[in-house]
Write a structure and sequence with these properties.
Four Helix Bundle (Hemerythrin (Met), subunit A), 7 strands, seven-stranded mixed β-sheet, binds guanosine-5'-triphosphate, binds magnesium ion, 3 domains, 364 residues, 50% helix, alpha/beta
């Protein structure tokens, strides 16, 4: 399950559309009032129009507030993405103005209803209703820029990658064209998801594979970790911090073929810089496009070809082992390659715990 389902954020109506919806619903409600006495009929109709239009406006606005994810509940990574994409402060403030407007509309509606109770003439009822409508429109007008902002932000947020912060995540870095996307495709079971990053026009590949019931995510970092520090802006730095936060393992890809877009020396400089930017994160250096080599150089520790699949399964195993080694915090949860020695059987916890872990595939 993804931490945020950005795609389920509802469409945001334009301010005028909200008012139209409210007033047309209210007119229908007024038509349904039956009373042979004109005085009582008009009074009921006007009261109902005020009630019904304020209900529509306020529930529409509150529904937006409820359906938009609350920033504080998001993972650090998602918060950084939202901040990079649309600005976290704007996000909070604009949602808060919707809440404010909803409260105002309810307040005006209550006042208008009470006024109608005090009035004694048909003209007065009409006037009270018109006055309330005017005030509703003015409130909705006041939040038209937040509403329009939310509509635009929704279109940006819908394209964000949904990364599950509870599952392991492998961050793939390297200079342009080294084969990051191709590697993710080669390792993924099924079609990788293609999402947009807010800070680059490039597309981001998000791949998955599973192993022993755990889902491993792989994320591309186009335009993010592939250029020198001084060229990066704040937003990108923030995204890097977020990647650092969510990533369990960093893969640095090197294209050492003579035709590589970036000279090898520059790629190695970038590697140095990344080690410096993201210190303390497990990092594997992987040589790509191995099919273009006649002989694999001795100093290539890890290598793959997305073209013919060479090295792909070996790399997968190394990544799983590396992540598992990192995940072992509970001494009772054993790493994947753990095996029992006959003479050193350790206590494994209660039968139930053992069965549960067995069930989770931890002993398989
Ligand atoms: N021969 C060969 N070509 C490859 C291999 N992997 C990628 N390529 C080619 O290298 C080029 C770049 O591959 P991508 O996967 O798009 O590289 P990238 O690092 O994602 O590039 P950017 O996202 O632009 O930074 C493409 O033309 C691929 O076909 C490989 O294993 N062997
Ligand atoms: Mg790519």
């Amino acid at each position: 399950m993804a931490s945020v389902e950005w795609r389920s954020i509802p469409t945001v109506l334009y301010p005028q559309e909200i008012l139209d919806k409210a007033f047309s619903r209210a007119s229908k409600q007024a038509d349904m009032v039956e009373d042979p006495d004109k005085y009582h009929r008009v009074r009921k109709q006007m009261a109902r129009m005020i009630q019904s239009s304020s209900d529509v406006i306020s529930t529409t606005l509150l529904d937006y507030v409820a359906k938009w994810p609350s920033l504080n509940a998001l993972s650090d990574f998602d918060q950084a993405l939202v901040d990079a994409a649309v600005g976290a402060d704007d996000f909070k403030q604009n949602l808060a103005s919707l809440q404010w407007a909803s409260d105002q509309v309810n307040k005006i509606s209550g006042e208008a209803q009470r006024k109608i109770l005090r009035l004694r003439d048909i003209d007065g009822f009409h006037q009270a209703r018109r006055h309330a409508y005017g005030r509703f429109s003015s409130i909705v007008d006041q939040i038209s820029s937040p509403i329009i902002w939310l509509g635009d932000a929704r279109n940006v947020l819908r394209k964000l990658p949904a990364i599950d912060s509870l599952e392991p995540c492998i961050v793939v870095a390297g200079s342009p064209n080294v084969g990051k996307s191709a590697m993710i495709n080669a390792l993924s079971s099924g079609e990788p998801e293609v999402a947009s990053y807010p800070f680059t026009t490039k597309q981001l590949h998000l791949g998955h594979f599973s192993h022993r019931r755990r889902s491993y995510q792989m994320v591309d970092t186009p335009g993010l970790l592939d250029r020198p520090m001084y060229e990066r802006n704040n937003i990108e730095m923030q995204a890097i911090a977020a990647l650092e936060n969510i990533g369990n393992l960093l893969l640095f890809l090197i294209d050492a073929t003579p035709d590589a877009t970036t000279p090898l020396e520059e790629q190695l400089n970038l590697l140095k810089e990344i080690k410096h930017t993201i210190p303390g994160k497990p990092l594997l250096v992987v040589h790509t496009k191995i099919d273009l080599f006649d002989v694999i150089p001795d100093d290539f520790e890890y290598y793959i070809s997305a073209e013919n699949g060479e090295g792909v399964e070996e790399l997968r195993k190394v990544m799983i082992d590396q992540i598992a080694a990192d995940y072992v915090i509970d001494p009772l949860v054993l790493p994947d390659h753990w095996h029992r020695e006959e003479d050193s059987i350790k206590p494994l916890g209660t039968t139930q715990e053992v069965l549960r872990r067995y069930d989770e595939g931890k002993f398989l």
